[in-house]
Amino acid sequence: MSMDDIIIHLFCIVADRLNTVKPHRNVNLYPSEVVTIGLLYALKGHSFCAFYRWLSRNFRHFFPALPDLTRTHRLLAHYSDLADYFLDDPTFFTVLDSFGIELIHPKREGRSPQQLGKKGKSNHRWIVGVKLVPLLNNRGEVVNWTWGTANTHDQHFRQVATLYDGETIALADSGFVQKDAPPSNIKLCRRGSWNERMTIETTYSLLTRLLHAKRMTQRRARHLEAHLAYLVALVNVIVQSCATYGLAWTDFTV
Prior knowledge:
The protein is an alpha/beta fold. The protein is built from 7 helices and 7 strands, in the order ααααβββββαββαα. Strands 1, 2, 3, 4, 5, 6 and 7 form a 7-stranded mixed β-sheet that branches. α2 packs across α7.
């Protein structure tokens, strides 16, 4: 698809999901427009300044009331809760895992007291950043998610799955073991077992190769959480579009 087709496709899906959300009387953009911009930002990746220049230069005809850079950035954070409209329902088996995101190079750790990311391991390598922890159903759609700094142990993210106790069995690796608490609805899987867990690898490939989510540039928790919210929503939109309309991931290449 061309970039114009991608924007129209995303806007139609967003407008359909948010048809009951009323705009504030003092804003120039409808909530569906703001969320569409958020999804485009998640699709484009990299820094927000570069994304805003790209959007303003090439596609202002789709968003004629686009405000300035800082105002747009604040709007995306303000409306990020609407991304929850795109979360899906759990299935009998779900998959729970963590995805490391690097914010700065490890050599820059500690240079500023305001650094958001912390040092931790992801895929057997050290990063300074955060973890995204999604709960996926068997179609690869995100049911729930949370995030924390990279030095946070996976066992502290168990509530993402335990919220659905009685609805689903979450397949997780040994990192989610917690000795002083029963496993509840979390099934701990040994390496090489339970092929259903491969769903998470497909989603992580989408995050890494298409959405360039292994590295982000946010320095404030509010804006980082907004970026992650739109990223999760975009994953569901892409997965559902591929299943419904017969599209491929490459059709969403920017």
